[in-house]
TrEMBL record:
Protein source organism: Methylorubrum zatmanii
InterPro entries the record matches: Mo/tungstate-bd_C_term_dom (IPR008995), Mop_domain (IPR004606), Transp-assoc_OB_typ1 (IPR005116)
Xref: Pfam families: TOBE (PF03459)
Entry annotated with the keyword Zinc: no
The protein's name in its UniProt record: Molybdopterin-binding protein
Keywords annotated in UniProt: Molybdenum
All residue ranges annotated as the Mop domain in the record: 2-68
Record flagged with keyword Mitochondrion: no
Length: 69
């Protein structure tokens, strides 16, 4: 796999929650650290995503969101 994105994090799928059209997929990239992605239900099926399976979280963004407590 070759991508232009430089933030490619390998992990394990720990949760797949399908909604009406969109699923929330949680990938554990390190012990206790997860990334959540919202993708279509079709994509979940096409990628064969299952809890316990391996997957990559690929992050490519042109925006940075700033937050404060």
């Amino acid at each position: 796999m070759k991508l232009s994105a430089r933030n490619i994090l390998k992990g394990k799928v720990v949760s797949v929650e399908k909604g009406a059209t969109t699923a929330h997929v949680k990938i554990e990239i390190a012990s206790g650290q997860t990334i959540t992605s919202a993708i279509t239900n079709e994509s979940v099926d096409a990628l064969g995503l299952k809890v316990g399976g391996e997957a990559y979280a690929v992050v490519k963004s042109s925006d940075v969101i700033v937050a404060v407590d």
